[in-house]
Amino acid sequence: MTALEFSYSLSQMSKTLQPFALKLTKDREEANDLLQETMLKAYTNRDKFAKGTNLKAWLYTIMKNTFITNYQRMMRRGTFIDTTDNLHFINSSKVKIENRAYGDFALKDINTSIEKLDDVYKTPFMMYFRGFKYHEIADRLEIPIGTVKNRIHIARKQLKDQLRIYRA
């Protein structure tokens, strides 16, 4: 197939591809852009088209893959398109950079709250926090395992109440 014949076939197929592009993009301008990009890719890769195969299916595949690639690129960029008249690309507010100040304040508050606990609750809680099992704590402190579980529960509850400003 010559370049002229291929161009003519592409122009004939553009009418059938337009509704598919509109279905994918849900916007007439974006559909026109997608159609134009599909036609350009098809023309530049015309040597890869096997004569005797289905041109329409080949073009639909190119269009679908182009749409998916463009969508993934837009998502990776972390931007969205403002569809108002001024058509700006605006950075998404989903991406934010945090410094460690918030974490440092939280850690200081956590440590202060732990220090405020009565020793009867703080000791089993800190042992559990360091990786001891309930039965190991009970053995070391020479108290029943139920008492260990209860004291850890009370310590958690008190810490939760003292640190409620950090709830999401």
UniProtKB/TrEMBL annotation:
Database matches in Gene3D superfamilies: 1.10.1740.10, Winged helix-like DNA-binding domain superfamily/Winged helix DNA-binding domain (1.10.10.10)
Gene Ontology MF annotations: DNA binding; sigma factor activity
Q: Where is the RNA polymerase sigma-70 region domain?
A: 19-73
Q: Where is the RNA polymerase sigma factor 70 region 4 type domain?
A: 110-159
Pfam entry (one): Sigma70_r2
Q: Name one GO biological process term.
A: DNA-templated transcription initiation
UniProt keyword list:
Sigma factor, Transcription, Transcription regulation
Q: Which family is this protein grouped under?
A: Belongs to the sigma-70 factor family. ECF subfamily.
Name the chain's protein: RNA polymerase sigma-70 factor, ECF subfamily
